[in-house]
């Protein structure tokens, strides 16, 4: 009888343990988690969705190679335009981490264009690419400088939560923008070509679903403001106005986009383009453009600063009011002195990342749809949870799979 009793107790314990394990597994299974705030964020997860690699490109004749992240070679997939010749041109390319193949497009002698696929390798070693013998020199009168300037294009979607340092509702639509930044850099050619060096920064305001009246800020972390020779600012309808905070100063160039709170409340809505039935047509979204002229002729430090500024890691977007809210790992600007006090003991040693690994903003390297108001981000993008919980190793292209009816284009 005693043996039977002990067997029963042992069996019951095992069953209880299995149920407990299954229950625990259910809590932390990212495919079953319904709220972003319940995700188990791996220690050290950096939330980055961009990868980079170095390439050396050459060709038998002088020409230009356009580099895309998709075989269709659509303009919104363009990441660089590179002048190439028999002298190898070494460049650093950034692309979505989900990218497996890059596509080089170049003109041929028969007047057509060839597309050369280049497989993205896991190694960090520099990869050499040589265009074929029938590549052609294609010159047009209106873009002569295209053949003496390397164009780097970075673009993406910035999505913020505005409750920092407290966790928000994680719909990631409190402030949403699409950005497109083109850098033009001379390869050491004629002095007059340097007059066309610089950065073009285009911002489209996609959504504002936050209760607080934050403004968008943008700092070029690697570019001292004094290196900007001149700048031109334009914006739609004079609603949003761009202010250059520190021209000619030693510190990094900082811009603030004022007036964005006026976008809220249109068409009977409480917010801006986050509520069902109050969507804003894509063609009516407000945009602003900053054009920076940066001539680096005979100035090595200026050249290095310009080159560094085309890297997405040095493009520091943030929200600003009485506090600043940045993406993970980006430091506050010199205009916000109370970070340590405001962050208190909620943060880790990494700026704008709490002790559980959560963040208040993400940078997605493509133009994506945002969640409808009060829709948890995992509801809008179910593959997002596995991407986070796997430390970014799985579902790298989670943003390609939104749920219809849960997002706004």
Search tags:
single chain, mainly beta, 2 domains, ten-stranded antiparallel β-sheet, five-stranded antiparallel β-sheet, disordered N terminus
Q: How does this structure look, described?
A:
By secondary structure, the chain is mostly beta strands. It is 13% helix and 33% strand. Strands 2, 3, 5, 6, 8, 9, 10, 12, 15 and 18 form a 10-stranded antiparallel beta sheet that branches. Strands 13-14-11-16-17 form a 5-stranded antiparallel beta sheet. The radius of gyration is 25 Å and the shape is globular. Mean pLDDT is 90; it is low at 1-27.
Q: Count of DSSP helices?
A: 5
Helix content: 10-25%
Question: Which structural category do the helix and sheet elements fall into?
Answer: mainly beta
The biggest beta sheet is recorded as: 10 strands, antiparallel
pLDDT averaged residue by residue:
90
Structural shape: globular
Strand content: 25-35%
Low-confidence regions: 1-27
Task: Name the assembly state.
Answer: single chain
Total domain units: 2
Total strands: 20
H and E order = HEEEEEEEEEEEEEEEHEEHEEHHE
Ends distance? 69 Å
Rg value: 25 Å
